[in-house]
Amino acid sequence: MFTFTGNIERSIDNKQRLSIPTEMRVGFVMGSGPSVVYASPGSAGSIFLWSDSTFEAMSKSLDHSLLPNEDVMEYEQLLYSQSRRIEIDKAGRIRLPESLLEYAGIGSQAIVIGVRDHIEIRDPKEWKATLKEKLPKLHKILSQARSQGSARSGETNE
Q: What is the pTM for the complete model shown?
């Protein structure tokens, strides 16, 4: 699995196309066929871009979900009805659906953010505000995440 990292600001043209940075684009290459992404609504007003293999694995993981069937069905209905399979063109661009751009509040500028197994597309001003608020808390957030992970696996933090 490719690990997406970094961030870069990009323009969105009048045809709703966004150029995926070269260093991130390689994470979507699958064999000799066309490179594709799955675009879906993300958290906190963002757009998530998933590779074909990651989106498929995420889909299969729902088969073993501990959520009640109604919750899984509602999640699937919302996720898949709003997601789009998009081919990356020869110039490394994708055409983002207007509905996802509206959901994320993104206009002519976006920031492309690598987040381990996917890419997030956000409004640059919103991202800068998020960074200003959360970056000073980075180590505290990590400590909390580690302690929650340890508690789930039965480990202790000593």
A: 0.86
